[in-house]
Each structure stands twice: as structure tokens, then as C-alpha cells.
Amino acid sequence: MTPRRMTPPPLRLETLSGAALQARLPALSHLRIAVFAEWPYLYDGDAAHEARYIAAYAADPDAAVVVAFDGEAPVGMATCQPMLASHGPVPAAFRARGLDPARFCYFGESVLLPAYRGRGAGVGFFAAREAHARRLGLPAAAFCAVQRDPNDPRRPAGYVPLDGFWRRRGYVHHPDLTCVFAWKEHGDERETPHRLAFWLKDPR
Ligand SMILES: CC(C)(COP(=O)(O)OP(=O)(O)OC[C@H]1O[C@@H](n2cnc3c(N)ncnc32)[C@H](O)[C@@H]1OP(=O)(O)O)[C@@H](O)C(=O)NCCC(=O)NCCS
Question: What atom of ligand 1 comes closest to residue 113's alpha carbon?
Fold first, then answer.
């Protein structure tokens, strides 16, 4: 008899805010550091900074973090909040292009431990965040992704960019709508600026 491959069960997704989110700060900080250490972010994260970053979502009643659980262990997370409440460079980039940031829900990031990818959590993160945007009455959604030189020698062989995944979720790339965030990459002494380009889903 040929053994059948077991399909792993879907991960449980919960949309957290406020105190429920605050209670998960250490685990979620470690998740972001682990996933963003990889290409294309190469982020040398700091747990205290990460905890402050997620605490700001917990303090915003209109923000939400969708957490993917394997049992009781968080294995992924995705953030969203009204763009007007997000980091200054994000709404500023939209205003500079004549776009009204008040219409947008901003999706800060989605991260999932590699062992759990390809099981629908990323699709679920978008569905849950778009549902949150609708609850807030925000008609449009946006996120940004770092722009890297395709010939960067640090790019792992066989790396598949997420562009196709995002297009299939209905998002449109706007390579000329960008902002700059600074972070320290592994091996660097200090933070350096990194340009990120936006993807929009705007029904207008
Ligand atoms: C972005 C990220 C969270 C996506 O996670 P993921 O869980 O692998 O994504 P999914 O499994 O939902 O989707 C991947 C593919 O599997 C498919 N899939 C597999 N099983 C599925 C299921 N049970 N239900 C729905 N879709 C499923 C999806 O449809 C999708 O294929 P498609 O684009 O052709 O439709 C993950 O790749 C990641 O953490 N990347 C590193 C961090 C990063 O760069 N984040 C983005 C910038 S912040």
C-alpha cells in the first residue's frame, strides 16, 4: 500500500487588537526579526524596537494585527491600520502624488515562518485585512515592498519574488510611488536608507 501524504490543516487566523495584541508582543517581535532577516529585507532587528513598533498597533483602536497560529504558537502576522495613523513617510508619499491617504488602509507587513508557507495563510492575511478596512469604511488598500537590484549578489538562487502573488490578490504595482525607510542590515554598523514602492488596490 502506498502511504498517502497528509495535507496539513489550515493555520488558525485571529485578528487581534488592543490588550490581546499587547499580550503577544514578545512572540510577534521575534517573528518579525526572524522573517525580515531574510532576503529581500536583510533586517538586523532589535527586540526592544520591535516591541515598541507592535505596541503602537496595540495602542491604536483602529489598527489590527492578523496572527496565524499553529496551536497556541504564533507563526505569522500581518498588520493594518488607517494610513493617516501610519509612519509619516507613508501618507507624505501619497500626498506628494496627489492621492488622499484618508481613503487608504495601510498594510504594514505580512510575515510567515518559511515552514508554514504555501498553505493559504498569506491569502488569509489579505482577506482579513481587507475585511478590517471595510469595517473602518476605507475603500482602498496599500502596502509597500523594498526595491532591490535584481543583480544584487545577496539574492538567493531560486528566490521567487512575491509580485505574482500580489497581482493575483488584485494589487497594482506603482514603482514610481515610493517612500524611504531606514534600517540596519546584517553586517552593517548603522542604519541605511531603503526605497520601497507601493502596491494599491483602489476600486475608484
Ligand atoms: C508573504 C507571505 C506571508 C505569503 O505567505 P503564504 O502563506 O506562503 O501564502 P499563501 O500560501 O496564502 O499563498 C501562496 C500560494 O499558495 C496558494 N495556496 C496554497 N494553499 C492554499 C490554501 N489552502 N488556501 C488558499 N491558497 C492557497 C495561494 O493561492 C497562492 O498561490 P497564487 O498566488 O497562485 O494564488 C510569505 O511568503 C512571507 O512571509 N514572505 C516573507 C516576508 C515578506 O516578504 N513579506 C512581504 C512584504 S512585508
Answer: 39
The answer to whether residue 88 is domain-embedded is yes
pTM of the model: 0.95
Beta bridge partners of 13: 68
Angle at 125 (CA atoms; ends 11, 137), nearest 5 degrees: 140
Write the residue with the smallest CA distance to atom 32 of ligand 1.
165
Mean pLDDT of the chain: 95
pLDDT digits (tens, 9 = 90+) for 19-62: 999 999 999 999 999 999 999 999 999 999 999 999 999 999 99
CATH number of the domain at 108, please.
3.40.630.30
Measured CA to CA, the distance from residue 83 to residue 139 in angstroms comes to: 12
Tell me the average pLDDT across 160-189. Answer: 97
* Residue pointed to by grid coordinates 536608507: 193
Which helix or strand (DSSP H or E) is residue 172 part of?
strand 172-183
34 is a domain residue: yes
Q: How far is the CA of 129 from the centre of ligand 1 (A)?
A: 14
- Host domain of residue 23: 12-201
**Ligand 1 atom showing the smallest separation from residue 68 Cα:** 7
